[in-house]
Amino acid sequence: MKEVLRVENLKKSYHKNEVLKGVSFSINEGETKVIIGPSGGGKSTLLYCINYLQKPDSGEIYLDSELITPKNIYEARKKIGFVFQYFNLFMHLTALDNVMIGLIKVKKLPKDEALKIAKESLLLVGIKEDLWNHYPAQLSGGQQQRVAIARAIAMSPRIILFDEPTSALDVELIGEVLQAMKTLAENGMTMLIVTHELEFAKSVAHEIMFLESGVIVEKGTPQEIIEHPKSERLKKFLSKIAKGEE
Amino acid sequence: MIFDVSALNLSNLIYVLRGIFWTLFLTFVSIGLGLILGSALAFGEVYLPPPFSYIFRIIGEVLRGVPLILLFLILYFAFNLGMTLSAILGLGLRSASYQGQIFRSSLEAISAGQLHAGLSLGMTKFQVFKEILVPQALRIMIPGWTNEFITVLKDTSIAFVLGVMDIMTRADFIARSIGRYFEIYIFIALVYFVLVKTSMSILNNLYERVRIPGLGEKR
Amino acid sequence: MSSFEIVLFKYKDFWLMGLKYTMLITVLSILIGIVLGLLFAIMRIYGNKFFKAVAVSYIDLIRGTPMIVQLFILYYGLGSTGLVKFTPLQAAIIGMGLNSGAYQAEYFRTAFLAIPTGQTEAALSLGFTRTGLIFNILLPQVVRIVLPSWTNELIALTQYSSLAMVLTVMELTAVSKYVGSKTFLYIQAFSLAGIIYLFVSVVLTRLMVYFENRLSIPGVSAQKLRI
Which residues are the signal sequence here (chain B) (predicted)? Predict the structure, then answer.
């Protein structure tokens, strides 16, 4: 299997607080990997460092075996989709335009081609034609997040990073977003997902990584991690999740 | 007679109304000047490194801190600029200091998430600025900018102290020459009122047309 | 003596007079404005159709016309009709007070509307009358919410008080023009006036921040209520 993303010994500090203390892992084509862990453990920072929205202090990130540097970051970002916790749809653009703007301005595709791809992407995540001309504020959170996913997949990225995509949503809207993500996984999209949805993780993840205090404490198949956790810290975390404290 | 309608005869009214040209000219030119200098001021304050950004900030504070009349007098008497130029620069500089604030707070009202989303699609910083931040900031600006426009429109009347032949100066001139003050001043109050209401409805209309639901409102 | 010293010391009494008039006009007109503003805001929110219409037209007309025109109507206009003859100082204070009232009515109104309706419901359920509700429950909160806008209004009025100059009041700007024309040291005279205005703004702002802190109650502020 071909390796898409490899992270080696990634470190990041804010002021004197070391958030990532040397994180390494890799993802192969078509794989879905899930990161779990307590808040403040460095999960979001890890994702933001991968596409340089936050600059890592040290360590290396390879995309298709090519080292990502500040020089080639704009090229790299075209191939790394990102789905944010708070959706971050462009507030002045309709759902359709949100999906098209990257295709037109970044990929420089002609408008009709961009339109075609955008429509396909929206339909794939279950956003039907009647919502295409709505502005973000006119959509529910679940719809916004699905448009955001469509915006990411329209760019046909090599991998998509999801930063707690459902944690800002009302409970009844979580399902539709997870369903859209499941569809992507089934279509063979490579994905790295930070989430607290363990049931979802169990059903789609090839591997789960437990990130706490800036290090990957444990990793393994969903079975190993969720059913048979080894470390005390992971056990504690899982019981907290079960009680709804995380 | 308290209110002598005959003071408002056609020739007097026409004499006063011809001042509308200068009133509007001063308004538009000063607002335009204020827009250009104001965005420069905002950028200087936000993006320049410390010693320079402070200078821009102090310029803004000073312009907002002194009366418009004093600005006019400084430009006219101390710098010997002509009355029209003094009026334009006085109104324009002052408006720049306010428009700079409006522009800055509009940019600040846009969440960092918008920048992140743009960058994550592979846009350059300039593309994010041009495609995302500016179109949003311009829309968020319009209500504050409408107020500023109205303020400048009304404050053109202060150019009266310089003698620019706007409606205020012309009204004062006629009032003195015919000795009827009440009627003439009430009349120009109405003229200003109509100008203010008209510009307001035009600008509100523009806002309604480009307004986007949810833009600029806090989460 | 340097030119700046001439401007300052030789005309010291003039500067003090200017400062006195500027402050007098500013402070009295904001007080008038507060009373009128509160009155018109209450009329507009709680009044019947007639009071509402009066308040709305007043606010609209004042905010839709330049202050200098208002001052001219009051001083030259009314004066020439023989109805009332104000002195220039009176006209300036009353005119600016009337003007400020319209703007402050809007500040008050926004503040009243920012208070959650639960406050009204709770007061009424305790048996408060409408007047009791307004003065005992709402007003103490409203005042704390409008405080920051009074700072802006004070500074705006300090600057607009220079318009009294065209009514021949010897306030700061008029003094600086007078001193300039006497000495031909315009730059120095105007700069001094500018410095005094900036100084006054800073002092007023500090003072208001002090009051805001003294009166602050957790949870009741313009920021908390997002206005």
Answer: none
Backbone CA torsion sign across B119, B121, B124, B129: negative
The helix or strand, by DSSP H or E, that contains position A82, with its residue range, turns out to be strand A80-83
CA-CA distance, B157 to B161, in Å (whole number)? 9
Amino acid at A152: A
C108 and chain B: CB distance < 8 Å anywhere? no
Task: Find, among C91, C41, C44, C38, the residue nearest to C67 by Cα.
Answer: C91
Task: Count other C-beta atoms under 10 Å from residue A53's C-beta.
Answer: 22
Phi-psi map region of B85: left, alpha, beta (phi>0 left; psi -120 to 50 alpha)? alpha
> If you compute the radius of gyration of chain C from its CA atoms, what whole number of angstroms results?
21
Looking up tokens 């018109």 gives C40
Q: Indicate the angle between helix axes A111-124 and A171-186, nearest 10 degrees.
A: 120
> Residue B191 belongs to what domain range?
5-210
Cross-chain CB nearest to B120 (options A77, A105, A138): A77
Cβ atoms of residues A83 and A150 within 8 Å: no
Q: How many CB pairs under 8 A join A and B?
A: 81
Whether residue B54 is contained in a domain is answered as: yes
| Cβ–Cβ gap A92/B135 under 8 Å | yes
CB C208 within 8 A of CB C146: no
Q: What is the pLDDT of residues B42-88, one digit of tens each?
A: 888 877 888 888 898 899 989 999 999 999 999 999 899 999 999 99
Pairwise CB contact (< 8 Å): B120 & A53:
yes
Q: What is the mean pLDDT of residues A112-135?
A: 95
A184 neighbors A148 (Cβ within 8 angstroms): no
CATH of the domain at C56: 1.10.3720.10
Question: Where does residue B138 rank: exposed (0-12), middle (13-18), buried (19+ CB within 10 A)?
Answer: middle
Contacts of A40 (CB under 8 A, 6+ apart): none
Residue C123 lies in a domain: yes
Q: Does residue A105 lie within any of the structural domains?
A: no
Q: Work out the angle between the directed axes of helices C139-160 and C186-215 (0-180°, nearest 10).
A: 180
List the strands of the sheet with A159-163, edge to edge: A80-83, A159-163, A191-194, A32-36, A207-212, A215-220
Determine contact: B67 vs chain C, CB below 8 A: yes
- Which among B74, B160, B188 has CB closest to C190? B74
- Residue A215 belongs to a domain with what CATH number? 3.40.50.300
Rama region for A61: left / alpha / beta (φ>0; ψ in -120 to 50; rest): beta
Partners of B140 on chain A (C-beta within 8 Å) are: none
Assigned domain for A188 exists: yes
Which other chains touch chain B, taking contact as 3+ CB pairs less than 8 Å apart? A, C
Q: Which CATH number belongs to the domain containing residue B184 in this structure?
A: 1.10.3720.10
Looking at the structure of chain C, the number of domains it has is 1
